[in-house]
Amino acid sequence: MIDTLIIGAGPAGLMAAEVLSAAGKSVVVADAMPTVARKFLMAGKSGLNLTKDEPLEVFLAQYDASPALEPILKSFDNRAVQDWAKQLGQDIFTGSSGRVFPKAMKASPLLRAWLRRLASANVEFRNRWRWIGWQADAFEFETPDGLQHISAKTCILALGGASWPKLGSNGAWAGLLAEKGVEISALKPANMGFDVAWSAHMEKHFGRAIKGVKLTAGDTQSRGEFVISKRGIEGGGIYAVSKAMRDGAVLTVDLLPDWTLAKTTTQIGKPQGKASLTNHLRKVLRLTPEKLALLMEFAHPLPKYPKQIAHVIKALEIKHTGPRPIDEAISTAGGVAFAGLTDGLEMKAIPNMFSVGEMLDWEAPTGGYLLTGCFATGRYAGHAALEKLGA
């Protein structure tokens, strides 16, 4: 019997493996995919955003979760993540937005260094091992060699949420745990795009970015950009307000966030001459074709008077038909409820079994918060498992 079985080889599972193996415990990491950390690698293709360099109180405020998550994040916070990456030999830098990246940008160099360190600590990996439940007291897996079983003194589940199922996280664990009496909050998409029923004239703008805008949904605001896609709207600016939108808040976009209402009104009120209204707005407001298209899509016909038009431009309501499916989301909300866990993330209904990472019922925006949350919960459960093992 091994000391700890970790199911799921993403950042949370690997961090738990690091803690336990460093203490000399026997650790096996099983994962359904052919290689480890598939979603981690995919997330790093356009630049691996490890964490956010900002005051801790600001950082913690970005998480929507039980208060139980706060001490976990404090135990391995945004500063600790940066130190950890440096210890793996990865030079890092902080962008103008405060986002922290490896200088290599990609995830693969960091992952290779991490796996070398785990291998040197005798962590064993079982790829293409899909967990399907229990057989007596052993964990049962479907593998290329048929059904296999592992007995372990402790187990840490790091199976991800239900987004990007092609990379391994499909949420199938929810049913298995619910049967054992574990409290599960419904899984929902997070950091996702939204469907929009575009009219035909928008087709030529598909794939174009709307830059330099302010998005507002409920009490949440975002300065950034988003993309007009064939199916709707997506991108960083949308993801930042997606929770409020998903929960029913109306989305409005300020197309000229650096202009006051008075300035916008004055500019619109300039002589129009023989120009059409859209050409007049393009000229006096310097609106891009994409911004003009959005304006005509959601506010046609425009009001008659300059101040009324300015109000629309400063708070254009974007009508959508709901979020994209959960399997297209960047992350998920919901999962294993903190009320059913001990302070060490052990499931009360299943002794000696822990849950970490995106499986837990917490939510955070993109920008390094998701990865830091996974690192922190994996590390925290690793230390809790050590205590159970009598380390």
Structure overview:
The chain is of the alpha+beta class and about 400 residues long. It is built from 13 helices and 21 strands. The protein has helices spanning about 10-20, 40-45, 55-60, 70-75, 80-85, 110-120, 175-180, 235-245, 260-270, 275-285, 290-300, 305-315, 370-390; strands at about 1-5, 25-30, 50, 65, 90-95, 100, 125, 130-135, 140-145, 145-150, 150-155, 185-190, 195, 210-215, 220-230, 230-235, 250-255, 315-320, 330-335, 355, 360-365. β15 (about 220-230) and β16 (about 230-235) form a beta hairpin. The model has no long low-confidence stretch (mean pLDDT about 95).
Biggest sheet strand line-up: 13-16-15-14-17-18
Overall SS class: alpha+beta
Percentage of β-strand residues: 15-25%
**Mind telling me the C-alpha Rg?**
24 Å
Distance between the termini: 17 Å
Poorly predicted runs: none
Mean pLDDT: 96
The dominant shape is: elongated
Number of strands: 21
* Percentage of residues assigned to helices: 25-40%
Largest sheet: 6 strands, antiparallel
Q: Can you count the helices?
A: 13
Offer a concise description of the structure.
The protein is of the alpha+beta class. It has helices at residues 11-22, 38-43, 56-60, 69-75, 78-87, 108-120, 173-179, 236-246, 261-268, 277-285, 289-299, 306-314, 369-388; strands at 2-7, 27-31, 51-52, 64-65, 92-94, 99-102, 124-127, 130-135, 138-143, 146-150, 152-157, 184-190, 194-195, 209-217, 220-228, 232-234, 251-254, 316-318, 331-336, 353-355, 362-363.
Helix and strand topology:
Layout: E1 2-7, H1 11-22, E2 27-31, H2 38-43, E3 51-52, H3 56-60, E4 64-65, H4 69-75, H5 78-87, E5 92-94, E6 99-102, H6 108-120, E7 124-127, E8 130-135, E9 138-143, E10 146-150, E11 152-157, H7 173-179, E12 184-190, E13 194-195, E14 209-217, E15 220-228, E16 232-234, H8 236-246, E17 251-254, H9 261-268, H10 277-285, H11 289-299, H12 306-314, E18 316-318, E19 331-336, E20 353-355, E21 362-363, H13 369-388
Helix pairs in contact: 1-13, 4-13, 9-12
